[in-house]
Amino acid sequence: MSDRLNVLFITADQWRGDCLSALKHPAVKTPHLDALAADGVLFANHFANAVPCAPSRASLHTGLYLQNHRACTNGTPLDARHTNWALEARKIDYDPVLIGYTDTANDPRELQDDSPWVKTYEGPLPGIRPLAMMGTWPGPWADDLADKGYPLPDDLRQTYGLREDGPDYEHGRSRPRPLIYPLKDNDTTYQIEKCMEYMGAAKDPFIMHLSLLRPHPPWVASEPYASMYDPAALPAYVRAPNVEVEGAQHPWLQHQLANRLYRAPDNDKKQRRMKAVYYGLMSEVDAALGRLFAFLKESGLYDKTLIIFTSDHGEQMGDHWLIGKCGYFDGSYHIPLIIRDPRADQTRGTRISAFTENVDIMPTMLSAIGAPVPPHCDGAKLDPFLETARTPATWRTEAHWEFDFRDPTDETAEQSLGLTLHQCTMNIIRSEKYKYVHFTGLPPLFFDLEKDPGELTNRATDPAYMSLVLEYAQKMLSWRMMHDEATLTHVTLTDDGPLARESARY
């Protein structure tokens, strides 16, 4: 067998960055991820670069900010001219495989009119080979359930949320209703078993994307995880006293809270039930990953495999009266990152406080397998943290993300806010102390995170903060200018042919 490194790239969908017991969360228990962190490196200030799923994953896979890959929303095609970690790994004879989904709307210019991928944003990332592809449609898992004799709903998309009969927590039940499918046969277990099956049989070094659906909704868990957390004993929400006061913070937030899809339930017990199951699904995923890590150790693969655990984005879960992922609040963008490099004995158990971003994952994976990192990448290799745990002198001092809230099929946001389609955007820069939110066509926001960690008070018009608002607006402009598209900007044609000189973005 080759001595080249294996890569297990794990994403758990919609996992908030504070929801690890290794980071002292007051409720969530994640002993197996804690153990991985103790045997690797935990990045405590890791952020997604966009929401929702598809634009965030486009940044994760390509190493590009949204401003460059322009896959703005779920359904916006990812331009085929952009490479990604799977395509680059193939160039050096890896066979990238997928269990789960990549949420990639493929470039229709590269497809035949009758291709099934022109009618969905849940296509496979170019260069990746699906082994068990599951997204909104449960596909192979549903087939497995049917083979085992389990009932299936008429609409297979409902399989993930098919609950036991009877009243729910908000109607008098002591705990949330569980998924009808037992733990041994649910979707997470199915994916883990497929993962182990493949890795156990692999004869060449593998690079696998294990893309778990949980804790993404529907928030329905198998027992014992449906009942693991008491809805009545959960941490308090971070939010204003009521929706009206919350929405007064900014016109965009007021607009968002008017949309029932993104507004927290008025019924507090329902919200608590959802939150309890959200935590339960995290513990379920943690236990499943514990099985997977044990398998790697038992099969002799653990010390031959780079393990990366992260998410695509977070979840508001009632904070600021919001559900889902949207806007500018940390709850939607702060996500976990744990990396265990079998070669990095000297940094085991370290915690990194420097700001890292999902655009850093692609160059880090490519560096680990010995593949060149394309010069267009907006992200940077995390190698210095894995090798020495020291922050490079030129490393970023802020996290950056974007939210494009346009909807090509719906003019509601434009009509409500008086914007054009292309003005439905915001950019965020966040340091340890401050956060600046810049809108196209709407007033900015500014938060003092030391005095107001819950992001409840907008200081953008406060005279005492004017100089800081200007400073961060300038930081935002510089960041965007530094990360203009750069594929060929380091190349010049000469009498001796093309000459290139690479330069770091930081």
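Next protein, fold it too.
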Amino acid sequence: MQRAKNNYTVNATPTMQVLTEQQIEAIYYAALAVLSETGVRVYDKEGWDLAYQGGAVVEDVQADNALVKMPSWMVDKARSTLPQRIRVIGPAGHDGVRKYKMDLYKNTMYFGTGSDTPFTIDPYTQVRRRAVYKDVKNLAKLAEALPNVDFFMSLGITQDTAVGTYDRWQYLAMLESTTKPINITAVDIEGLKDQLEMAYIRLGGKEEWKKAPCFSLYNEPVSPLSHSEEVIQKLLFCADHDIPIVYTPCPLAGATSPVTLAGTMVQALTESLFGIVLSQLRKPGTEVIIGGLMSAMDMQTAVYPYGSPEMALLSAGYTEITKWLRVPEYETAGCSDTKCFDEQACMEAAINISTAAMIGGNMIHDIGYIEQGLCSSPHMLVASDEIISRAKRILRGIPVDADTQALDVLDEVGPGGHFLGHDHTFNRFKTENWRSALTDRQVYADWEASGSKNYQQRVHERMVEILEAETEPLLDEKMYQELRRICELADARHTDEELDVQMFV
């Protein structure tokens, strides 16, 4: 671990570093070699035609796919038009102000949830069950109230809706409960179109979207080195309609990528670079956020672990690569492999949140995940909010100036005195020291008198308090019905579908 010097002008903090600049360069040039020599498989004709027109070599053309090889100069050209700063601002609240925003560049840092879990932990019974519309709405309400959750993903699949339209219903549920920026998913290109229309309605028109989009799209190529028709279509649509796109591969070391962490990062970067180049060929200036939800397969259980040290290391290393590239970055933290909210959940979340904070990622998602991303936990979400708060306090560092050195205070109090009654203490203690309503610091007798509650109980009470608080609806009836109609029209196009819940396992 290396430590950077503090800079109190920008309040930079001691940070960890897992890759040297030479190692970053080695991984980058290795990715360029893979992209130009091995190539990637593209399953969309419009995609490989666009790549060909831009200078790529297209080989082994099949009925539905082709091998695309991009020379390094195409990457250089694409990087020259790729935005280094991306802004996403949530819709207005009751005051008419769009106040929750993400400015993604360099060292800015925002935490948010994961998405599309087939299961959730019931907030009251604490029983694992399949997620429904109400769960997404409740989890969005929690995120709205938690000060350290900056953006929201659905944290549940609405399995009480049609299989081909759940993405629209998830977006509606989120719009009902949060004004924070949203990172959406889309079943297909039609789902993306519908959600964009819903966003225009929520913002009050396309012109407001032009000021700043209110959502970004999560888009995932298929590891290893493949880009599906659906993924390419979404990428091109985002470029055409000024939608920030998260282009993030999810390789699993030892399964869908090389077992070595460096090899996995090379592959992930290759997959992301292809998305960058294609987006800029379609429309120079298209806003792209790259990342890599990467981990190493557990060879004993064959699962994709979310709480492993390897995932934290891969996220950290990839963050350093994206900073070197000056591309906004998407990484993972606040998640666990445990099956319930327990000590393991808190331990794994604390470690990966702290690692992500120290390395300084831009858009850090998956807060609230347990069970390898198959299940959402409202308790985990509330606890992670506090963990993030702790990490942010550490990142503030220790400013050293005339006021904080307190020489005049030391002189006034003098030897043998105390500082409890001094104005300096009164004026500074609330901002100098971290405090939390969830962490217990009482003496034993007071703790016992207040009910002897453990951390799990305190988290539960805070969660219930938020969920049961009366809040004014974010959508008036007219807007709600407009948005709901888009979902219902989508349902009408999918009347023959039956929800196969097994597809979400």
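About the second fold: Residues 1-399+436-505 form a domain with the TIM Barrel fold (CATH 3.20.20.480).
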